Amino acid sequence: MTKPLKAEIIAVGTELLLGQIANTNAQWLSKQFAATGINVYQHAVVGDNLDRVTAVFAGAQKRSDIILVTGGLGPTEDDLTREAFQKISGLQMVEHASSMKKIETFFKERQMDMTPNNRKQARVFAGAKVLENKAGMAPGMIVEHAGRTWIFLPGVPREMKWLTEHAVLPYLQQVKGMKGVIKSAVLKFIGIGESLLEDKVSSLIQAQSNPTIAPLAQEEGVVIRLTAKADTMEEADELIEETKQQILAKVGKHFVGMDEDSIEEQVVSLLKEKHKQIAAAESLTGGMFTERLVSVEGASKVCAGGIVSYTEEVKKNVLGVSEKTIRENGTVSRECAMEMAERVRQKLGADIGISFTGVAGPEEVEGHPAGTVFIAIMPRDGMVSVEKFTLHGTRNSIRKKAVLKGLQLIFEALN
Known about the structure:
InterPro entries: CinA, CinA-like_C, CinA_C, CinA_KH, Competence-induced_CinA, MoaB/Mog-like_dom_sf, MoaB/Mog_dom. This protein is α/β, with parallel strands linked by helices. The chain is built from 15 helices and 17 strands.
């Protein structure tokens, strides 16, 4: 039986450690490796310091079969990837003629002076497989050294992705004889907690083998990650689809989509399907609910618009909430939420009105503590719904959670 290859990904760049940019390269590369059946065992980020980069490279050489390095291939003094690898490998560097010509042509066509340090980008290790970078200047490299495969790619995401798709993965498939694929899919649920979801599908989890089933709590609901291993992508897709249907048979009413699907996309889709328009009156959410809806392509067909009625005066004079309702019940109340939803529905000629009123904090309002939220749904014909929530977190997190609750309520009402 062939021993599975161990891979690790190393990102070089102090800007990553300082948090100036996120290490999205490693996340993307891990997905590509997983889909090819390569197990990524470790991620590392190291700053632009020759001794530290060398130490990280030395450790990787001892433990991993495939080491993919991003960054540090540029022309400046802090681009130290080549120098660090040379220290652990002893390999000579040479100037790659076609890469150098490409760099010279780049500057000549733009009538720019090429400084001497730009020649550094054309330096490669003797015997390396040089990867032409059609998305940028610095070439990539694959070096087989002491039983390890070292892959060096630029840190610019566009260039890294192009080289991975067009050169790195085909090389690993051909030279390493990679067989089989690993495919993951994420099922998204809303309106059900992690523990209840896990209980509902516990029999499937206990019997799992392939795909594996992993429930996870996230900020915008609960997800189940399915991971299948198969000889081909088509077989992996079939395994995932079969398990997905078994899960949906138990908790399908809470399902809102897969992978990159969003709750707002599902709401817009349901509104289109039912030929309904919605309008929103937003107090504490300040337009966030409407913004999420209109971020979806085609939302203009189902979103009539919204009114941000943040103050009491706007609630009365623009939205039309009665002074009696506010005097007797306050602006943070079921009654005010109901009237807000009804008035915005009428004013904008929509089929459904939804309203948000409450206390984002930090101080209490009208005797209500921060996190008190009322959401009302007022359809032209159908059942009126008003829900009270007690949400926790910072001022902005309470606002975001209120929007998510509103999307959940509309999703459930339409579904």
